[in-house]
Specification:
17% strand, single chain, 12 helices, 8 strands
């Protein structure tokens, strides 16, 4: 399919992905999107490379052979919200489907999202994500309660009319660190009265391998970053839903303070022993401790004094109020 022929016809759906240092997975992710049961003329892919420096472009993106319209945007690292907005700016589809760069699409994913939006106008389509440890041994693409997520707008596998996303103000680019930028947009969509419905047959596989000790410290740092964006989220929308979703409610904050004063996070860190291949504890127990230590770091960061933080309720792109 030539670029000229792609321009003659507006696609039904745009698949928007952002990537950062996913060299090991991105080829498989794109190949699954290139082999959909939807007519290739009916969809496009807009991929934003957010400053990858692991050879993603040289080893993967330079060599892709797309079967549909494909746009690649390379930019300096600017964060996921900015990357998503760049993708929205380039999108031409009637519908936009947001996915992550560690997600493998099933062959009917796009046709399922298109069919959903034919039946439901001005509605969010929440697809299903099945967590897997490898893309080489996949379970049947069948929804179960284990795969349920109550997130109103989770960009692992979610679609909406493109015009509706633009009308709502796109993603808030002040969310530069990890987490919450998609749920923040979802909250604004919810305030507009846009329903969010689950499509059980719109399935992807989400790569979630077990943590290894070399990743434990990074998980704790990421948890603190997520807590900083949680504070930002709640400052912008001081609503009970946001407080509950992000853990910014009195009982949880009180309990985390009690646990820290009792020395519980230090115990968890000793058991996890980040970076050590062996420490005498079973690996399953070490992963459990690492996950809970990261959670304790999240709550500790939530309580950091924010008096000097930027006032996220000031008027800015992505804030319709």
């Amino acid at each position: 399919m030539t670029a000229a022929s792609a321009e003659l016809r507006r696609p039904l759906i745009t698949v928007q992905l952002c990537t950062y240092n996913r060299r090991a997975l991105l080829g498989r992710v794109l190949e699954a999107l290139f082999h959909q049961d939807l007519d290739p003329n009916d969809y496009e892919i807009v991929l934003v490379d957010d400053g990858s420096n692991d050879g993603t472009y040289e080893e993967i993106l330079r060599h892709v052979r797309p079967t549909c319209a494909f746009q690649l945007v390379r930019q300096r690292n600017a964060g996921l919200a900015r990357g998503r907005n760049v993708g929205i700016e380039r999108a031409r589809g009637e519908i936009i489907l947001f996915m992550d760069d560690d997600v493998l699409a099933t062959s009917n994913l796009l046709s399922t999202h298109v069919r959903f939006h034919r039946e439901h106008q001005r509605t969010i389509c929440r697809g299903v994500a099945i967590n897997v440890e490898s893309f080489d041994n996949l379970p049947p693409p069948t929804y179960s309660l284990r795969n349920y997520s109550g997130a109103y707008f989770w960009t692992t596998n979610v679609s909406a009319p493109l015009a509706l996303i633009r009308e709502t103000g796109n993603f808030d680019e002040r969310f530069r660190e990890y987490g919450w930028e998609d749920l923040e947009l979802g909250f604004r969509l919810r305030r507009k009265g846009v329903p969010s419905l689950l499509a059980r047959d719109a399935v992807v596989y989400h790569f979630k391998p077990p943590l290894v000790p070399a990743q434990f410290a990074r998980a704790a740092r990421q948890a603190r970053a997520q807590a900083r964006t949680a504070r930002q989220f709640f400052a912008k929308h001081p609503h009970w839903r946001i407080g509950l979703a992000t853990g910014q409610i009195a009982p949880l904050l009180w309990w985390s303070t009690v646990a820290r004063r009792a020395g519980w996070p230090a115990v968890l860190e000793r058991i996890a022993s980040p970076g050590q291949d062996q420490n005498g504890w079973p690996m399953g127990l070490r992963r459990w401790a690492a996950e809970r230590f990261a959670r304790s770091e999240y709550f500790d960061e939530l309580k950091v004094d924010t008096r000097s933080a930027v006032d996220t309720r000031s008027t800015a792109p992505g804030d319709p109020s």
